[in-house]
Amino acid sequence: MSAGPSAAAGSPAGALRHVLSHLVTPLLMCIGMGLAYLGAFHAPQPHDLRVDVVGSGPSAQVLAQTLQDKGDGALSVRTVADRATAAEHLRTQDSYGAYIPGRAPELLVASASSDTSATAVEKVFTQVAAGQGAPLKVTDTAPTADGDPTGQGIFFLLVAVSIGSYASVAVIGGAGAVLRLRVRAALALGASLVVSAIGAVFAGPLFGLVDHGLAGLWAMAWLYSAGILLIGVGLHTFLKRWTTLGVMVLFVMLNFTSSGGIFRPELQPGFFGALHSFWNGAGFVEGVRGHVYFGGHALGGNLLVLALWFVAGVALTGLAGLAEARRRRAAALAAIPPAAAAAAAASAASAGPVRPSGEEEEEEMEEAVGV
């Protein structure tokens, strides 16, 4: 008796081919993570980093122009009339440092906006003050909470919420592949509630990353997580075992690197700075910063970004539902005699999903475990 397909697949050569085909995904993840993280973080350099020089006389103008020229594109320097205007620019994140020259020079920063940007500005103006023979006083107009001294806790909260969200996508898509799409969508929304609640516990009572505004943080975490889960559930209908790679590209490789949680766009290559203006991770990080530290400044725009990603998830889930309905109708029509095809077409839309084959089940579970 000749060997059938199952026997061929069970042979050592077939098993090796099977393993090698599945190694493609982690290798692509390795390449993608290296390109994204090293491209975004390996050599942070300021470009067009906005700073103010306080003063209206000739000396202030000369200092500003000198810094602009010597910076060679690293700084964008302007003069402002007084300290109050400079402080307002920091509050609205229109600048990242304000230098007040004089016998006792002072630098205003807002570390809650970005600790790394504040550090870069402080380095520049420490040298300026030293050239004038005076020590520099640094005043932080928007310090972070005691539980987040570096200001990067919100970024690591983003990482935790993101991993909980896209890992749930793999589980719902793999273990829940036989469920109706509306059930999977409901599971996604339920998982987002749990993930966002866990994030709120981390941010508030457990680590003290924020000292007020916890309810608003939770709401943004839910909107962010729900968008990821709905997009992932919708993508799974089309990508199957490649869904994990797809959501990692969207919500890890491009997301973490453009969020501004470690380096703001002014310290990164232009590609990641462009993504920062509309990617969902940046919407979450900047939304939480604005809500907690800057009196809600620019909060509406960041909420809009998160809401649009949520709407994209709803739309993609709807498209997945249409695609699955077409597949059910096609499967029902192919499985019955032609005479009964018309009746089957009418009833197929209400039928449940077809259970995956053994090979498909294996790939679905590998995807879930692979996270």
List the SSEs and their pairings:
Layout: H1 5-9, H2 12-41, E1 49-54, H3 58-71, E2 75-80, H4 83-91, E3 98-100, E4 106-109, H5 115-131, E5 137-140, H6 153-174, H7 181-206, H8 214-239, H9 243-258, H10 270-276, H11 280-293, H12 299-334, H13 341-348, H14 358-370
Parallel strand pairs: 1-2, 1-3, 4-5
Antiparallel strand pairs: 3-4
Helix pairs in contact: 2-9, 6-7, 6-8, 6-9, 6-14, 7-8, 8-9, 8-11, 8-12, 9-10, 11-12, 12-13
What can you tell me about this protein's structure?
65% of the residues lie in helices and 6% in strands. The chain has 371 residues and is α/β, with parallel strands linked by helices. Strands 2-1-3-4-5 form a 5-stranded mixed β-sheet, sandwiched between helices. Helix 3 (58-71) links the parallel strand 1 (49-54) and strand 2 (75-80). The chain starts with a helix and ends with a helix. Residues 1-7 have low confidence and may be disordered.
Which tags fit this structure?
5 strands, alpha/beta, disordered N terminus, elongated, 5-stranded mixed beta sheet, 371 residues
Rg over CA atoms, rounded to whole Å, is 27 Å
Strand content: 5-15%
Order of strands in the sheet with most strands: 2-1-3-4-5
Q: How many angstroms does the end-to-end distance come to?
A: 41 Å
Counting DSSP E segments of at least 2 residues, the number of strands comes to: 5
Spell the H/E element sequence.
HHEHEHEEHEHHHHHHHHH
Helix tally?
A: 14
**Gross geometry:** elongated
Major sheet summary line: 5 strands, mixed
Overall mean pLDDT score? 89
Helicity level, as a percent range? Answer: 55-70%
Low-pLDDT runs: 1-7
Structural class: alpha/beta
